Amino acid sequence: MELVVRNTSEVVTCDGALDGRAEDTLGRIPRGAIGVENGRVVFVGPEAELPVVSKGTIVIDARGGFVGPGFVDCHTHVVFAGDRSDEFEQRCQGKTYLEIAAAGGGIARTVTATRNATEDELVALATPRLARLRAQGVTTAEVKSGYGLDAESELRMLRAIARLGSAQPVELVATFLGLHAVPAEYKQRRDEWVRLCVDELLPVIARDRLAAACDIFVEQSAFTHDEARRLGVKARALGLPLRLHVDQLTANGGAQLAAELGAVTADHLEQISTEGIAALKHSGTIAVLAPTSTLFARAKPYAPGRALRDAGVPVALCTNCNPGSSNSENVSLAMGLACIENGLTPAEAYLGFTRIGALAISRPELGRIAVGGPADLVVFACESYRTLPYHLGMNEAAHTIKRGQRV
Ligand code: NIG
Question: How many CA atoms does the CB half-sphere of 321 hold within 13 Å?
Answer without folding.
Answer: 23
